[in-house]
Amino acid sequence: MKPTPVPSPSSLLRGALVLATIALAPAAAFASTAANTVINNTASVSYNDAGGTAQTPVTASASVTVTLVPSAVTISSPANQTIGQGTTATLTYTVTANANGPDNYNLTSSATPASVTAVTPAFPTGASIALGGTTLAAAANNGDTSISVPYDNNVGGAALLNGIAVGSIVVINGNPYAVSSITKNSAANTASIGLGSAIAGGAVAVGSVVGERKTFTETVASGTVTSGSSGTQTVSTTATSATSAGATATQGTPTVITVNRPTLTVTKLVSTDNGVSFGPSGSAAPGTTLIYKITASNTGATNASQVAFTDVIPAYLAYVAGSGKFATSSATAYGAATGLTDGADADGFSYTAGTNTVAYNPGGAAGTVAGGGVLVLFFEAKIN
Amino acid sequence: MKALPLVAFALSISLAAAAAAKPRIVVAIKQSKEIVETTDAGNKTRLVPATSASPGEVLEYVLSYKNEGDEAATNAIIEDPIPKGTTFLANTATGENTEITFSSDGGKTFAVPVKLTYEIKLPSGAVERRVAIPAEYTNVRWTVKQIAPGASGQVSFRVRVN
Fold first, then answer.
1. CA A307 vs CA A47, A266, A361, A373: distances in Å
2. What are the residues facing A43 on neighbouring strands?
3. What is the predicted ipTM?
4. pLDDT averaged over 10-residue windows placed end to end, chain B, 162 residues
5. Closest chain A residue to B160 measured between Cα atoms?
6. Among A232, A357, B149, B161, which lies 20 to 30 A Cα-Cα from B64?
7. Measured between beta carbons, which residues in chain B are less than 8 angstroms from residue A155?
8. Coil, strand or helix: which one is A28?
9. Contacts of A283 (CB under 8 A, 6+ apart)
């Protein structure tokens, strides 16, 4: 072949065939160079004088810095959760960079409510996350405990290599590795990243992305259930490159947060036979001591807290001092229930003579009725 | 006055050196990248000077040479290793009145493309000699037989950033 500046038709044809060959070579097609890599080109000219004596060669250099190609992160889909109304769900996301250099990613999230009031998700550690990234300068093989990547020209300082620091987690070919060391070699235009564990899962081609992985948390308040005993907040979170809005990724499966609210029902029964049987009504002679049984049942699926009872004792009845008792099972008999004291003290039970009122407001754990649970209050009153 | 003839002798040597005709080649590199302009008439590519590029972009290197001496330079060899981090693009090496050869072994041997071969072992066990594809080129070399005083020229090639 005699080279000419204008390609002949035959060389054009051959060029097309050669290009087709390149396109089939996957290593060339998917190779990528890290951002901030400086590509140096040094040309040299050696020549002789007219007499054939070699002269001192001359050189010229030019360099190009490789730019960031913003890329969408890989973002996880946290598992569904169930929370009680009035509490807050905490979702932990994992994001992994797929870019050839460091970038910041802005976080946005929406919660779509169903049978619950709307809420706005929050990012307690900030609505932006920085992720480093580089690429392999040489293929990585099974068992390697360090990888070679391009030198980053010290952009971001000596401690960072394209945003990656000692202690960072980097993902190579889908597998995470802890970074144990970073050694830069500006003369060789490369850097070495030590890994806490050996490369596994097969050889990784030169040019493959080494992307930093981080986690962030997001909090989603329950809102208030508007109908039925539960509602849902369907959460969808997106991370978008601060450099390019087109490089954006949203969690693949939205996270459904089920919000349960407590539902209390109350029944009041009376016993005229000293607790043998309880019924909604009965008849008894004056002087009989009645046992009242007030049951608060939580038919919802989540805790009801601060459950409090108030009962004004009707006319013709006298409260029997010290008769207050409570139980957490509707099967517990009065005799087996736990005693309460009348005075204003820690057990939350009191009898106020002036208003003839029995009150029970234990608060805390004692005042919390789990979903499906009950809190029973007993007291005695005597017919005048 | 024994020193005087020595001084005169040294002077005459330097005069002779200055008077001797010599070639003096200077070389410069210009780098640019291919950008695609989207217009109503369709996509159009053009080259712009570049100091930065993204992976996948095409860079063109133009090497300009000139003989600023007063004697012809002979057998000038312009050599450029394909920059690390880039891949040579087929049929992009140009150079008027030059012989262009390529190396696929880091500059140890050079040959014209059809003769640039390598051996590969086939699954059958047979060894086949194949023509190196341009993506495997490691060096480009332009040989210019003679560059007259004051003469200049340029050679170029393109690569894709990996």
1. 98, 11, 7, 12
2. A60
3. 0.79
4. 46 48 93 88 88 93 95 94 92 91 91 78 80 87 94 95 90
5. A28
6. B161
7. none
8. helix
9. A272
